[in-house]
# Entry
Amino acid sequence: MTNSINELENDAKCVFLIGTNTTENHPVIGYKIRQNVLKNGAKLIVADPRRIELAELADVYLPFKPGTDVALFNGMMNVIISEGLADREFIETRTEGYEAMAKVVENYPPEAAAEICGVDAADIIKAARLYAESEASSVCYAMGLTQHTTGTDNVKSCCNLALLTGNLGKPGTGVNPLRGQNNVQGACDMGALPVVFTAYQAVTNDEAREKFEKAWGVKLSGVNGLTLTKTINKAYEGEVKGLIVIGENPMVSDPDLHHVEEALDKLDFLIVQDIFLTETAQKADIVLPGVSFVEKDGTFSNTERRVQRVRKAVSNVGDSRQDWEILCELSTRLGYPMSYNSPEEIFEEIRTLTPSYAGMTYARLEGKGLPWPCPNEDHPGTPFLHKEKFNRGLGLFHAIEYLEPAELPDEEYPIILTTGRSLYHYHTGTMTRKAKGLDEYMPENVVQINTELAKDMNIIDGEVVRVATRRGNIELKAEVIDGIRENVIFTYFHFAEAAANVLTNADVLDPVAGIPEYKVSAARLEKIQ
Amino acid sequence: MDIKLTIDGKEIEVPQGTMLLEACRKAGADIPTFCYDPDLKLAGSCRMCVVQPKGWRNLVASCVTPAQNGMVIETESSDVVEARKVVLELMLARHKLTCHTCEKDGECNLQDYCYRYGVTESRFAGKVHNLFKDDSNPFIERDYDKCVMCTRCVRACEEITGARAINVMDRGHHAHIATAYDGSLEDSPCVFCGQCIMVCPVGALSSKIAAGQGKPAQNDKVMTTCTYCGTGCTFELNVKNDKIVGVTSNRDAEWSPVNKGALCVKGRFGWDFVNSPERLTTPLIKENGEFRPASWDEALDLAADKIKAVKEQYGPDSISMFSSARITNEENYLAQKLMRAAIGSNNVDHCARL
Amino acid sequence: MTQEYRVLLEHADKINPESAADYIQVGGYKGLEKARSMNPKDLTEEVKKSGLRGRGGAGFNAGMKWSFVPQYPETKYVVCNFDEGEPGTYKDRIICQKNAQALLEGMAICGHAIGSNNGYIYCRGEYPFVVEMLKKAIGNAKESGALGEFNIEVRMGAGAYVCGEETALIESIEGHRGEPRFKPPFPGVEGLWRMPTVVNNVETFACLPYIMTNGADWFAGIGAKSYPGTKVLTLTGDIENPTYFEVPTDYLLRDVIYELGGGVKGGKKLKAVQVGGTSGAFIPSQNLDTPIDFDSMGAIGAALGSGAVFVMDESRDIVDIINRIAKFFEHESCGQCTPCREGTFRCKEIMERINTGRGSLKDIENLKVLARIMQKASLCGLGQAAPIPITSTLEHFEYEYLRKLV
Ligand SMILES: Cc1cc2nc3c(=O)[nH]c(=O)nc-3n(C[C@H](O)[C@H](O)[C@H](O)COP(=O)(O)O)c2cc1C
Ligand code: SF4
Ligand code: SF4
Ligand code: SF4
Ligand code: SF4
Ligand code: FES
# Structure
């Protein structure tokens, strides 16, 4: 997030939610947005194919077609420009590339955008005005925006909108991705990405690489690595031979599970380090038992970039070991000795190599933690970014045309399937399915179907139906609801036994970020006789 | 502009608009409260916090009465003490007093204040209600036979979570906390965040997941950060005999900067997977399609051998690593360091996008 | 002095209360005209000077109440309290049925003083026929142009006694549970929809036109000095003439019963009088020579309240009556604050015990403690006043309790 979570409750005068079911996926952030609307009268715009809970409170609700995000943003920007609501001063002093962007946006008058998105032009106009006219507007998004072949374009469009109205670098504004998992931010910050070291220092940058080579005392590769989804494809093709998986469960979380399974089967070795024998661990050659968050010390970085402590409360279970100790042992056995006395000592090393964490120490993190960047020990941390200037200097507009999703409904698969999360479960369910209350409350997967569609197909609430795509099919209970577009169905991906990712598409990825298109698959709904 | 007043003989100055409760606390007086909650709208209804302004006929509820210039306040006058005792006795008269088995034992306002004012039993004992709510949900126990009707749960539900699942139903002595139509929480807009448990000053609301495993007052508490979504809520792990037995809120913004103790159903009730019998307790090696337990040395040596063999035959880029968005920064750092420095490839990623 | 003195009810039954024209014929809407010719500050001063005090029970100086209303916010409200929930009280209904236009005029005068054109009348749920009449009266007055820009809406109460309490009434108009708010903030600063609001009783408003036409000094000269004007009383119980009267406020309670009321029914001896409604004190016969005004009543531990006078003859069983009153309050407590919610319930339990011959001295002790704390620590007037019948009868009629104990 460019801005901090509490600004969504206290400072934002208008909140625009797109592709985030906030009250289910980031519940506490959802509460804050709701309170801002109820207590302070903040305006709320919700764009989502499903009538999510917060849509009930929205000043404008846009139930747009999955995958048409760019058209929606362009439509809104068209209104903002033509009605003179753009922040001219901000554009002139803080941005570049406006002209090219404006030229593309010209082709998206609200009526045209409305046609693509399947919503009312009047609502696009209203949303545009609300967002542009408020003193401080914040846009928040989650996987609903990014899990598309055009995910990167979607995010860039979102930035365009904020730049156009000067909604960056002030309290209550910003472009705010809500990260799904507790330490996605941290994993990215720490360089658990194929193209960067810590703090987004590119592996292809000689200077950065030399710095790490010097610190680590070893020659490093300057070739970008493989993303997770590419790794699976390369394993399938036989180019990747060995895989180490730490606390992940691609056998449930990745797209097109049949494909994943075949890929893993082809590996020479699979080593899994986890706390449970997950679906993925079951396929491993070697399983190494790590510890859960209650058994370890360390830090997590949340979606607002706040680094907070995790504290060990109980001893390791059985003969399991601290994950950092396992990694050290393995590395040492590979001929690269690693040895630390504690996570704090690792953190001390991290901060020497990670400018944004340089000013943090465990002592300073005691209590409420620190949001990065925190470049030195006197720095108070940074609740919101881009105050005076952007990282690259000027904010860059991108001229982006709308592109259709890769897999559109056709005669054989006439419906759009979209997937997501439930309030009661988390990711692949490895943890929540073993939490008694959560599993009892929501023991099985469902597919949400619009009332009209259900009526046409003679499907009743609670009936078991089959959902099929080009990749495969699963059977699960129908939940008949009003709050979803008529030709869209929705299902959760937490359940290994009715795994939504049997259905999703691994062939098409966002060309830049490599994100699979979880939010749009062409599907068919079948009644089971 | 500051105003001056005298509290228990002590002169103090407070800013205009300060409530007497705060002024009294500033003057060092310990004022008992039930319905007051610094993060919620004021109710002024339990009347436990009454104090005596000199020259006034009635006592005033200090939590809702603004301090006035020149006021002379007594916080433990005989009238005040009598009023508090009567309030406690009125509460006790309908209370299912089972402290020995109560989750709240040791940090219960009713218990503490009865102790403080020497209230052993109620002069007003008579009919009791049967308000225990047999609610089948797996998370929240609702025993309204222990409720003191402070309405903090109602306000927390509305003002923190915004679910508006519960409200006061019926009037007078029949007033009680209920969902619409007095049904179960499951059939209401309740999202099982447990904010109601967080604010309840007595044992009327408690966690079913933690029930019977350790009274929170007696457990050790370890502050940590939630393992689920990216919001980064912090909370207290409750520990007893080296086992996690519950999760409670710490509402201090200095320790809970993002959420001030508020949580969602996963954070508050989803912790018990750590005690699952299915947890892995020893390294496993697969032989002929079956896992067998192995020693660490054996498992790690084998892992290193396999990695080395593939690396030698196919090069470092034939090996990939999936790190994790659920492990710590320190572990992620080591994971990518291992991949890059020990194996020699940039093939490291995690599920950021999934 | 045994005569009625009719000001509000002077033209009762001689004019059609729905008709603005009728009212204007007898001098109506002159007061409003005069009020509007004054600046709001002076108008408020004039009302202050008249000494008019609230007729709804609390006896607060009306002009003073208005003077607390801040000037700045645009939206303010004038609310008429016509909840009249006291059993045995119907004087507000009589005033409406006989002289509705005076109420409307009074509200408009207040509106000018505080700068509001938004009036609400909150009418008791049991009076649907009066609501109809009021709506016609308002329609007629609006048509005639007499009210000018001032608008009045009628809201029906839900039949809860506590909704007569001004802040509960406000909550009720807002569509919430009828529960009193803690004060401050008073409605004058934060009332309906959190905007400045004046709440006055029907009778209070209805006095205003006469104050404006005849002058503040004229009003201040009627009746008791500290509580001037007239008061409409309603007589019930064991009385020869169970009806209503309008009298100057220095009128003696004895004369109310023996002159206007025609004495105790059947010539029986008087045991007690309860003035001011269900929460009023029980006044023994030795205190009858007290003027009915607010302060004189206060001096003998009673309250004028709404002006209900309930007469009990020598044959009445005090404990049984108190038992029923305890039941009433147990039923009417809103349930918000501990002393009243639990206290009224336990009072009822104890009274039931005593009344059925199962009570003990301990019960009487406990009752006294409970009553004291309810009065001192309850959130609103209901809980504070509910024990008054108990304490006043324990003071004057304790023997009636004692003889019922086991
Ligand atoms: C329990 C309770 C019931 C009340 N009922 C009434 C009522 O029915 N009518 C009324 O005018 N005032 C009633 N009051 C008094 C009002 O709260 C308020 O003081 C009054 O409306 C102010 O008007 P006034 O100043 O003109 O008397 C009641 C007060 C309490 C505590
Ligand atoms: S709620 Fe408090 S007083 Fe009641 S049983 Fe529990 S600990 Fe005891
Ligand atoms: S359940 Fe607890 S928080 Fe809710 S009203 Fe009762 S005592 Fe208060
Ligand atoms: S408690 Fe809920 S909202 Fe907070 S971090 Fe955990 S999962 Fe997210
Ligand atoms: S005194 Fe009675 S009526 Fe008044 S707020 Fe308290 S419970 Fe409600
Ligand atoms: S704490 Fe003040 S009234 Fe309850």
